[in-house]
Amino acid sequence: MEFQLQLHRSLAFLSQRGLPRHRYEPPLFRLLWKIGIQVPPPHYMGFAKVTVCFGAWFAVFWGSLMWLLMWSRQGRGLADDALAATVAGACFGLLMAWFYERDRKKFSLPAWESFGRG
What we know:
The protein is mainly α.
């Protein structure tokens, strides 16, 4: 219950700061929250955690899509496909981490823990 209260407060705060909903509640996070995974909004995660979270999601999603649409017909090796998906995921993850870090500083966001008190 504590997490839900903390999440609700932090999302309300981000909304009050003028951020659009799709920026503080990305679809990936809405899905994680819906299935019960207690992860803070990306603005309140560290740089490395955002990189891994978004990078892994992108690598799996984009790599699978590329394999289905193109790579399976080209006769590429599995190692090449995995490497391409990993590099793309790492680039995407770093870009998203930079984006959320920039927002954190721009909007002077408090620490995640500050939303859990009383």
